User: What shape does this take?
Amino acid sequence: MMRMTKWFGIVATSVVLMSAVSAQNLVDRLRDAGSISFQLADGAYRITLGVPQLGCNLQDFASGNLGAQDPLSFTFQSGTLNFQATINQLVNSIQSNAPVTFTGTDLGNNVVEWTVDQTFNPTICTVISISGTDYVFEIVRVYGKFRMQVSEIDCVDDPLGMLNRQVSLQLTPTGGDEHNYMGFDGFVPDGQCTARYFCAIATANTLQYTAYGGDCPACPGNGDVDGNGCVDDADLLAVLFAFGSSEAGCADVNSDGVVDDADLLTVLFAFGSGC
Ligand SMILES: [Ca+2]
Ligand SMILES: [Ca+2]
Assistant: This one.
């Protein structure tokens, strides 16, 4: 009885440890894969005007929905979750391709938060298109936050078609408007941004977006289905259990889309190798 209790304790401890490790690993996996795809599906924008002395939100100028923006891919700076984007990547209706840097932070519990807060000096003299009309917009500051929940999905070709690989992680907004927004502070100037008529704030809230990342370990293809370096009965069983299946991961040893006798033979011929 004592022995069983002891074993139970070890098993329970291992399960707790393993789940703690796997819970922690999603953000590491996201970072290590080096890039994510991202698409803003929609958001509500609002542009207000004013004068610097009294506030730049005195008068509503325009509001509406951003609509779907072009899908993007972002490449992390080595060993981090940080990436660079251009202003027109974030909001297609603003012409500027000035770069902004997003800093990614692992908040724990598989949540990542990207923040940007950048002041431009010199300012950016660009054009914003609102309902088909172009307006000159002098941008002084860009800020924003994207807080995303990372969850595991089955390996699939990047659903946004931006990453040239399979992905295993999906990222969705979490934390509400407080943690998901973008803003641009600036001025409504003359055509050359030499005179300023009003100060302006453009914000986007209620952001709806999806992102994908992570990668899928390539299958060894040599019969070592579980990738532990040794072809043994565990690999044989994996193929037998998945026999006939078309969605069997690395049990489909030759990656032809079905687990059949060809995969079984590869394991049998390689049996014992590497052990
Ligand atoms: Ca193996
Ligand atoms: Ca196969």
